[in-house]
């Protein structure tokens, strides 16, 4: 697929504040310079609602990774750090998994982690992390709101994604936010 036909989509943002973790995503999927779907759902709930996952990249790849992460989560008693490390090891060493083009943010009430295909497991220093096309805009907005407002984690995620949707052509304001 050439660059004009590449599917671009998504901004996923996670924020921890005052004992709450919120993760949200927009709904846009873009093919080249055309928006082809506005209401894609890119945030999921796992472990009876105790873990939230958001993904960016190829949908098929994201769902394959989501299933594997859910299995690792179950194997490690819903410990997202342990599950993420085991998932990253598998992702890095498995030939088929290495070809998957997706990135995930996983979060529970205590941690936010970014999982990437090169074996990355990253925990942000400041309880704000994002992935996808509008991630820079969403992160900047969230950091400013964390520092200069009394908004809740959920409100920060929604407002930051709205700001990203107003700026990034690959992000819209059809936003889903979930929290733990």
Give the helices and strands, then pairings.
Layout: E1 7-9, E2 11-17, E3 20-25, E4 29-31, E5 34-37, E6 43-46, E7 51-57, H1 59-75, H2 80-93, H3 95-98, E8 102-107, E9 112-115, E10 121-122, E11 128-132, H4 135-148, H5 153-167, E12 176-179
Antiparallel strand pairs: 1-4, 2-3, 2-11, 3-12, 4-5, 6-7, 7-8, 8-9, 9-10
Helix pairs in contact: 1-2, 4-5
In short:
The protein has 180 residues and is an alpha+beta fold.
For the biggest sheet, the summary is: 5 strands, antiparallel
Please report which band the strand proportion falls in: under 5%, 5-15%, 15-25%, 25-35%, 35-45% or over 45%. Answer: 25-35%
Number of contiguous helices: 5
Helix content percent band: 25-40%
Radius of gyration: 15 Å
The secondary-structure element order is: EEEEEEEHHHEEEEHHE
Q: Count of DSSP E strands?
A: 12
As laid out across the biggest beta sheet, the strand order is 6-7-8-9-10
Gap between N and C termini: 38 Å
Shape: globular
Low-confidence stretches: none
Mean pLDDT: 90
Structural class determined from secondary elements: alpha+beta
């Amino acid at each position: 697929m050439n660059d004009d036909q590449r599917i671009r989509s998504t901004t996923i943002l996670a924020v921890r504040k005052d004992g709450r973790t919120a993760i949200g995503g927009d709904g846009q999927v873009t093919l080249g310079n055309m928006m082809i779907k506005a209401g894609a759902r890119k945030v999921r709930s796992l472990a009876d609602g105790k873990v939230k996952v958001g993904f960016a990249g190829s949908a098929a790849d994201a769902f394959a990774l989501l299933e594997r992460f859910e299995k690792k989560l179950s194997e490690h008693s819903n410990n997202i750090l342990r599950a993420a490390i085991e998932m990253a090891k598998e992702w890095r060493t498995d030939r088929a998994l290495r070809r998957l083009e997706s990135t995930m943010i996983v979060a529970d009430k205590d941690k936010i982690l970014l999982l990437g295909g090169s074996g990355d497991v990253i925990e942000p220093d400041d309880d704000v992390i994002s992935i996808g096309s509008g991630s820079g805009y969403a992160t900047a907005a969230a950091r400013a709101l964390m520092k200069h407002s009394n908004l809740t984690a959920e409100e920060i995620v929604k407002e930051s994604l709205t700001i990203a949707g107003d700026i990034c052509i690959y992000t819209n304001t059809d936003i889903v936010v979930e929290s733990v």
